[in-house]
Amino acid sequence: MTKLSTSIKGLLTVIVFLAAMLPLQAAHIVGGTINYVCNGAGKYTFTMKIYRDCYGGGAAFDSDFSNGAPFAGTVTIYLGNSTVPFDVIQLGTPTITNILPTLSNPCLIAPPNVCVEEGVYIFNLDLPVSTSSYHVIYQRCCRNGSISNIVLPGETGATYYMELTAKAQEVCNSSPTFNDFPPIAICTGEPIDFNHAATDPDGDVLVYELCTPYDGGGNDQINATAPNGVAPDPDMPPPYSSVTFSGPYSFTNPLSANPPVTIDPNTGFLTGVPNASGQFVVCVAVKEYRNGVLLSVTRRDFQFNVALCNPTVVADVLETDTVTLQETQYYVVDACGESSVLFTNQSYQQQYINNFRWEFDINGATETFTDWNPTVDFPGVGTYYGLLVLNPGAAACDDTAHIEVNVYPGITADFEFDYDTCVAGPVAFTDLTAAGAGVGSIDSWNWDFGDSKKSQEQDPLHTYEIPGDFDVHLLVRDSNNCTGVRTKTLPYYPIPQLLVVAPSEFIGCQPAEIFFDNLSTPVNESYTLNWDFGDGATGSDISPIHVYNDIGTFTVSLEIISPLGCQTDTTWNNLITVLPSPVADFSYTPSQLSNLIPTAQFTDESTDAVKWRWTFGTSGISIDQNPSHTFPDTGLQVIQLVVYHVSGCTDTIQKILDVIPEVRYFLPNAFTPNGDGSNDGFRGNGMMEGAKDFTLRIWNRYGEQLFETSDPFQAWNGRKNNTGDLSPQGVYVVVVTYTGPRGDKYTLRGYATLIK
User: Fold this and answer.
1) Would you say 312 and 399 are in contact if contact means Cβ atoms under 8 Å apart?
2) In a domain? residue 314
3) What average pLDDT score do residues 159-184 get?
4) Same structural domain for residues 517 and 379?
5) Whole domain around residue 220: which residue ranges?
6) What pTM was estimated for this model as a whole?
C-alpha cells in the first residue's frame, strides 16, 4: 500500500463534487474491528473487517469501485501524542462476503430484510520500534438511521482503532482475533448465548468486557474528506468521543434485555435475553495481558438486529432418560412401584400451542388424554408406548414427542444398627431392603451416616468421632434404576474408652493459669463432667481454665457421665506443680522530672526478689537493685522492672514517668541605649527551646506601640521600630506572650526603664 497521490486526491475532489448524485453518506455501516500480526523487525500485517447493511441504502465499501464506491478507503497512522500523521495508507479493494443470518433456535424463522456483508482489508505497515504507541485509525460516516440505542444514528459515524503499544512493539506481539462472527439476527425472548471468545497466537491472557463504540467523521458530503466529512482524510487522531446513547441505554446496557446483556470476562461468553425489537450498537473489547502488562485492546463494534421471530413449538416431556429406536427418539419415563404415572409436559413455545393430546397404547387400545400434565393408570408392571402431539396439522408449529413408559416393581429400603451404648466403638449397620424386582436385584447401596462420612458397602461398620443424634440415610438402587430411601435417627452417646487431657505435666510459676484441653472422645455438652483441680476447686466444662494461686503440687481428677448414664473417671497424680514467684514494685524521686531536672533515683520495693533488670524507655538498662538514671529527652518514659525469684520465676511491673519540657523567660527592668556597648538594648533571657508563637510588645505611656518582635532574643534599642530618634527617658510598658511546648499559654507583663 502507498500514500494517496495528488492525482487520486484530485479524483476524490471530483467525486465529492458529484455528491448529489451518489449515496456518499454510507448510512450502512454496522460494525468493524482491526487486528494485526507482527512479522518481526517492525513489520506488521493488519486485517480490518468492516460490515455493511445490504439494505441500508448507503454507499458500497470504500475502494470497491467496481460496485460504485465513491471513495478510496484510507487508514491513518499517528505516533504517540502527535496530531501530524505518521503515514496515510490507501486501502485496496476489499474481499467481500455475504454473511447469512443464523438464529439460536433452528426452528425459528429469521426476520426479513436482514442482510450483512463483510469487507476485509489487509495492509502491511513498516513501523520502526518506538517507545510511543502507534495509532491505526479508520473513520467513516454513517450508521443506520434506524438504530434504536443512540442519538441521531444517521448522523453518527464510526471510528475503528487499534493502538500498537510500545510494549507490544518491544515483544513483537500479535493481537488476538475473534473466533466467530456474532449473530446477525436475534429473536426477542430467545437467549443470545454467543461466544465472543478470541484466539491469541502468543497465548497471552485475554479479558473481555463491554466497551463504548466510538463516533467518527460527520455528515458533511460537500467537504467529504474534512474532519467532519463522511470520509475524513486523514483520519483524526485520538482521543475519540463515544457515541451518544439514548434513553436508558449505555455501553454496559446496550439493548433492552431481561436478564440484561453481560459478558463473562474470562470466557467472552455474551448472554442475555432481549425483550424489545430494534437495532442496537454493541461494542465488545478483548484486552490482552502478558505477565500482568496490557499489550493490546481489540474492539469489535457491531449492530445487533433484534426482531420478533416467527415461532414454532417443541414437544417435550420430563423424562428419566432418552433412547433412539429405529431412528426415532423416545422420552423414557420410569415408574417404580406405582402403576399411576404423572406426566409433566415441558413443551414450548406454550403460547403458540393451540391444541394437544396424549395417546397411550394400553392392552392393545389407544387411550387419549387432554390434560396438560395427565395422570395415566397402567395395568401393572410392563412397558408401554405413547405420544404427545402438539398442534396436529399446523405447518411449522406442530411437533410430536414419542414416549416409552416402564412400570417396574417397587423397592422398600430398610436397615438396622447395633453398638455398645456405653463403650465407644464401631456401629454395625445391616441392610434389610426388600426388592420388588427379586433377590439379588439391588445394584448399589449409598449410606450417609449423618457426620459427613459415607459408604457404599451393603452392611458397613462405622465409627463416630463425636457423640450426638445422627440421621442415617440409606439409598438403594436396583437393576431397573428404581430407588428406595430410608432414614433413621441413631443416638450415639458412649463414654470415651480412655480419658486424655493436656497438659500431661505442668511446672510453672505462681499464679498459674492452666487450660485443661480435654482430648477424650466422644464427649460434648450433653455429658456431665466433674473436675477436681486438687486445690479445693472444681469445674464442669469440657475443657476448663483454672488459676492456681497457691504454691505446691496438685492432683487432678475427671469423671464423665454420658446422657445414657454410663460413667468413667481418671486421676492424674501430681499433675500440676506451682512454684513461688516474686512481686515486683518500685518508686522513684523526684516525683516530677523535667529537662532541667532529668535525673531520677529508683528504689526497689519488690518482695522475694534476688535479681533485677530495669529498662528506662529507650535510653538504657540496669541490673542494679536501686539505680539512678538521667533521661536525655523529655516526654513519657515507660519504666519496666523485671524481678527474679530464687525459683527462677519472674514478675514484671511497668510505670509511666513524664519528663516535662520547661520554658523560662526573664525580663530586665532597665537599659541604657547610649552606644557604649554595655546594656544598649532591652531584651529578655532564658530557656525558650520548644516555645512557639512568641511576641514581645513595648508601649509608651500614651498607648503608642513602639516595638514588636517574634524573636525572644531580639533587643529594643529605644527607638520606634528600632529606627529614627531615641525615645525619651522614662518607663515603658512591656507585654510578652508565648505558647509552651505542650500548648500552655504564657503572658509576662513588666516595665522597661530607659536611662540616658
Assistant:
1) yes
2) no
3) 94
4) no
5) 6-307
6) 0.45
